[in-house]
# Entry
Amino acid sequence: MKEDKVITIVGLGVVGGSYAIALSKKGYTVYGVNRSQEGLELALKAGAIKEGAHTPEEFFAKSDIIVIALYPDQIIGYLEKYGKYIKKGCLISDVAGIKSMFVDKINEHVPQGCEFLFCHPMAGREKRGFRYADDRVLQGANFLLVKTENTSDEAIERMTRLVKNIGFGNIRITDAATHDKVIAYTSQLPHAIAVSLINSDDENSETASFIGDSYRDLTRIANINEDLWCELFMGNKDNLLHSITSFQNQLSVLKKAIEDNDDKTLKELFVKSTARRIGLEKKKTQ
Amino acid sequence: MKEDKVITIVGLGVVGGSYAIALSKKGYTVYGVNRSQEGLELALKAGAIKEGAHTPEEFFAKSDIIVIALYPDQIIGYLEKYGKYIKKGCLISDVAGIKSMFVDKINEHVPQGCEFLFCHPMAGREKRGFRYADDRVLQGANFLLVKTENTSDEAIERMTRLVKNIGFGNIRITDAATHDKVIAYTSQLPHAIAVSLINSDDENSETASFIGDSYRDLTRIANINEDLWCELFMGNKDNLLHSITSFQNQLSVLKKAIEDNDDKTLKELFVKSTARRIGLEKKKTQ
# Structure
């Protein structure tokens, strides 16, 4: 199999930047494309990229792998504009948090002789920009590979080798429909909850003196990039609404147990959640 | 003011055990009372206590401060049974997560010449028992002092000195009604949410491969001590139901924005939550 040595990262934000740092540390030749000059300079200074530019023509012509770490709705336009500069045999990928809505469209725009592999690294941060990029967030993180009818085994092998190399843990192959359904529950619903929790605070309450780790943990992701997450929510609307409804139903069961002074049901809910949480940790460490 | 040197901790669980470790490190003479022999032996072995026993008579007779780190509903019975052994001038306290329901009752059972100061250290863990005790969880944590009509300034000063000494950060004086109202929101509601989130998972879903830090953070406290938390929920029922309802309303607003494809409202919710979360961090570091 072809050895991939030259990688271009488009978008040196938190995710793209973290990739760049990790890849450079592992000896890959990494080029960075970024809209802002500041991001490019920070990445160069940090040794995360060999060279940087605002547009990708030159880098695309010599890259073995390209990671487009832009917002989901920017990917197609990017391929339309710059796809022609990509060299044959290149493996192109993304880092988008939703897939179904554009899988087919992207497959239509892949340059001939290249392949697009849909990827979702489950590692991010609530902050924006290269200054918050950190390769440690990738270590042991889950990585989702989304297979379509166009996906080759070779592409999966190449990407798996790359991401294992920079520290990702469990690499899971799935399809776009399953991905979006489960991600609505594991990623988008938690964000919807965190936002609603902090927004339900009494304006006049002096909450800050009364919090412990639980409130801190549950609201960390209430610090949210509104443009990106609006796009992710709206682009996965039906799945997310389904997850919100399931959660609302569970919370209603718990609320009713409190209203009814029903200790037995309340404890059963706690025992169930405890078993599930312990099960999750076990699966993680397997 | 009197210098407090001898402390008895009743209940060497996660919270009591963490106190014991921290106090011993700071040179206090610490006695431990615990139901299980295993907890006593672990605490002795860890150097967290000087001596341990299953009942407190001997230790109470020589203690300057007593911390009763039992479940809320056990405190009154404990004072009834062992209050007579407590020496005059002793400051007695608790670590309970709710207050209003028993403040008056406890004040009736305080031995003459002693004072009971209601305390709520905002530091815990989702696990049980001394083996999970760790003084690091106290470092910088919030500490709530709940004042009643019986509370003296001297008691507040003695307790403040003690808990500052073992690392607590912001020490806040409040009253029982305010305490229970705010705690319903900052502590009990997050637990209700975490339990409902993990319980709303599809039984057949292979969630573990699809999670990132957000889901891990939001479900950590779904691993919950069912007896303790059932008591805390039921003992603060009205406040908690109010908090759950406010949260449900917020989540409904967000859900409706998604249903209506209302990007503007959704982004406004995100901007609001982001500002609040940043504000929280700022207050913490002040």
In short: The longest strand of chain A covers residues 115-121. The two ends of chain A are 29 Å apart (CA to CA). Strands of chain A lie at 6-10, 29-33, 51-53, 65-68, 91-94, 115-121, 143-147, 171-175. Residues 6-174 of chain A form a domain with the Rossmann fold fold (CATH 3.40.50.720).
